[in-house]
Amino acid sequence: MKQYDIIIIGGGASGLAAAIAAKRAAPSCEIALLERQQRVGKKLLATGNGRCNLLNRFPTPNRYHGSGVSLLKAIYQTKDVPALVSFLDSIGIPITEEEDGKCYPCSLQASSVLDNLRLMAEHLGVLTFCDWEATRLQRQKDGFLVSSKEETLFGRRVIVAAGNVASKHLGGTDLGLTLLQQMSHTITPFLPSIVQLKTGGNPKALSGIKINGTVSLLSSGNVVQREYGEILFTDYGLSGPPVLQLSGAASRLLSQNKEGILSLDLFPKQSLEELIEILKKRKALFSDFPLEQFFSGLLHKKLSLSVMKSAGLSPLSRKGETLNEPELLNLAKTAKAFSFPLTGTNGFVNAQVTAGGALGDEFSKTTLESKKAKGLFACGEVLDVDGDCGGFNLTWAWASGLTAGEAAAHSILEGSYDRRTSR
Ligand SMILES: Cc1cc2nc3c(=O)[nH]c(=O)nc-3n(C[C@H](O)[C@H](O)[C@H](O)COP(=O)(O)OP(=O)(O)OC[C@H]3O[C@@H](n4cnc5c(N)ncnc54)[C@H](O)[C@@H]3O)c2cc1C
After folding, report:
1. Stretch 17-44: mean pLDDT, rounded?
2. What pLDDT score was predicted for residue 203?
3. Number of other residues whose CB lies within 10 A of the CB of residue 366
4. How much is the mean pLDDT over the chain?
5. Rounded distance, CA 12 to CA 422, Å?
6. pLDDT at 205
7. Which of 47, 49, 83, 370 has minimal Cβ neighbours within 10 Å of its Cβ?
8. 382 alpha carbon to ligand 1 midpoint, in Å?
9. CA triplet 56, 62, 63: central angle to 5 degrees?
10. Domains in the chain, CATH or no CATH each
11. pTM value?
12. Residue 46: CB within 6 Å of ligand 1?
């Protein structure tokens, strides 16, 4: 049986970072990186629409969710943004910053991020095995057996960096969670996050329309989350950055069978009073024209017809001058709160991340070593941590991967684990 000092299960963002960090910390360690797909880092290639939004400058804990946030708070103390920028720099990836702290590689190519990670791991002597799917993890006195259907390897330390179920076509799977369950870890329920939302209210008629506006997720009359940006109407519901941003909260509402409403403010720059004034001027300007023309030049035609229907105005062949005060007020209110009932998400297949995973409390805050099985570590999305849209998830993948990789290597160098078990 082949033996390694460290076996890393999963060749994605966190696994590659862990491999590089471990090899740098302990160059003499033999490290095997196992990847079930034909090549490592397939998901990375799809990140940031192929540009890889690889970091966020402001990864404050409130941008993250799940039981692992307490781990993240501790880990970001040392693996802070300068440390992560320095890691990326050390593998030849200088970054460029765009709005809201979003950082990209200067090349603006996700493929270059993967190339540099892969080449650096190879250069350092990490042994990568693709088409190698770990299906079983067994505890031994001085390490672990890692098995696929065909082969079993022995690792003195094991790092589970197998990601989670989002985007199956890019490698998303629950296998990593199963391996951790085999080591008695608790898995919290998982939900799709950073995903498009399905709505009622016939969005099909508006499919393809893009607007800049505010989306509020409401439940029982309260605002759960509010986001601004480009909203896209689709045949199933709503998409676009602000919708993806609040999709985690929407997923949680749906899982609790709570009512959710997506309320769009189509005029976020104007207060209700200002919008009423604008509509009054329109009434004077368009007094002789049918209501169909009322928003012409101000709002997308199809959208304006839908808003007017929602406001109960009919027939739309009526002239502008016939609009009375209550109707104008109602029209303004409808345009400021154009609402759709939340009916679902587009599921794990289309989700960018999974909310839920291995329970955070069961791992060390400083090393990410398992409290259930000494010598076992975990990093990345397999842990119950999910971040908002904007580079927060890769920030966590690097920080947790570096932490687990360094800690596994140090524990080999110190022989602490072997001393503990031989006592
Ligand atoms: C379309 C898309 C766009 C995204 N864009 C961004 C973005 O711009 N910025 C951002 O911060 N985040 C983004 N994300 C999220 C981000 O990609 C993930 O959070 C991150 O890749 C998680 O890293 P990971 O190492 O935990 O898991 P992954 O990158 O998913 O890697 C896990 C690897 O383990 C392998 N594996 C799983 N089980 C086994 C097993 N049993 N044996 C062997 N190998 C196994 C998988 O094949 C996979 O390659 C995006 C995600 C998607 C799907």
Report:
1. 97
2. 67
3. 13
4. 95
5. 34
6. 83
7. 49
8. 9
9. 35
10. 3-192+355-422 (3.50.50.60), 196-345 (no CATH)
11. 0.93
12. yes
